[in-house]
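**User:** Hello, beginner here. Are you able to go through the protein record under this note? It all follows right here:
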Amino acid sequence: MNRSPVKESKVIAALAYDQENRILEVEFLNGSVWAYEDFALADWNRLEEAESKGSHFSKCIRNQFPGRKVEPKPEPESADYSPQLKESLKNTTDRV
């Protein structure tokens, strides 16, 4: 799912909604991502229209829908560099 950034939230970084599977995905500012199931389109519309997405989430979603933490996607094997190589690459790009 492609998440859309949420502006001016003290809690939520981004949101995505899968209408076909009725899943809301919430990326929090701390980097964790949670999926909430059985999330109807009407619920999504209310969240989108909420003045404060963080407050709406806390009051109407967090304890109302089954949620599970989404594990981060593993990086492709080609990106599995040693810490030393990663630092070396970072230093190289910093100089450009």
Notes: The mean pLDDT is 86. Residues 4-95 form one domain. The chain is about 30% helix and 25% strand. The chain has one domain: 4-95.
